[in-house]
User: Fold VOC family protein from Planomonospora alba.
Amino acid sequence: MINTVAWFEIATDDPQGAEKFYGELFGWSFTADEGSAKGGMDYRLVGYPGGDGPKGGVYATGGESPGHAVFSVLVADTGAACARAESLGGQVVFKLLDNPNGPDFAYVRDTSGNLFGLFTPPHLRGAQA
Assistant:
């Protein structure tokens, strides 16, 4: 559903360690995301025992960005949501729009400095909220 928490991401420079930790703790499994791999990104989708599909992923940063664990909100238009967040005092840290290899997404800091994500899957680009 639009404007709901729909994804989480764990970013780390040790994706194998994260897989081991979360796999053993929660029974999660991990598979490479082919779309991300086409764009040169190491992103692994999380699977759950008895789950209906991935609702999160592990991003291998390669040391290029700090580790983090964030929730992400599904929005109809990532660019518009970023602009609205900025108008409310938030800060867009990173955004990728018109992503040919997957969803549009952004990292945003709220007015307290907390990092969260926004994303729009390709099939929803241009949808109304």
Notes: The mean pLDDT is 90. The chain has one domain: 4-124. The domain at 4-124 is CATH 3.10.180.10 (2,3-Dihydroxybiphenyl 1,2-Dioxygenase; domain 1). Helices lie at 15-26, 34-38, 78-87.
